[in-house]
Amino acid sequence: MGVLLYQMLMGHASFGGNTELETGRWIQKADYLSPVKLNTNVSRASERLIGKILTVAPERRLTAEQVLAVI
Prior knowledge:
Layout: H1 2-10, H2 20-29, H3 35-38, H4 44-53, H5 64-70
Helix pairs in contact: 1-4
């Protein structure tokens, strides 16, 4: 869900990489470009929400139900 939200807001893939292996490394590290760096009009609330959805640790990641409650 976080990847989709990121792409919808940014018009850009959240995780880079030229190969599947490279992309996998970015995902494992939750290494993505801050939404605000791509678009200064993105709200801090949206940036925080994306960060919470793209968190690597599943126990710390927001569920779909939690995201809907925020939106």
